[in-house]
Amino acid sequence: MIEGEGQGMSERGALRGLRILMWVVIAIEVPVYLVWLVQVGYLTGQELPSGDIAPWAPPVLLPPAAVLFCVMAGWTWWLSVVAGTRSSLRERWIVASLVFVAAFSVFCGVASVDDPSVAVGLLSAAVTGLGMTGLFFIPAAASRQLPDVIRRRSRRTAAAPGEADPDPDPQ
What is the reported pTM? Predict the structure, then answer.
């Protein structure tokens, strides 16, 4: 066997493993988050004053808004990573849309219970964070360019001149 061939197969296996791991995480986090959003949105909506649409707005509007804003932010970020340009996460509208989804998700999680507590807030924040992360990484996980970007980034960090060795004492 050629020396570089084994390394290439190992690298392909690691990249395939990363992609599989990303999809497993997405497949678990995203459905849990969306079902949770519908449930807490429904419960929060029932606490709102009766009106034409008030009780039904949170469970109907929040899950699609979360999917749209998180995947859109992930898509714009991924395109900037592929192109090697400045991260689009520095754009105010992207950050504002993610903050809106996070704040409203956590708010609905806390407002949906009879006795809100710190534990409920932390659980809401955890479910929100994991779900939004899963939604955000869908474009990267689905991209055919993922292996190329990882290789390019790993070569760039491995060959970065003038950086201190992260492990100066290999003993």
Answer: 0.78
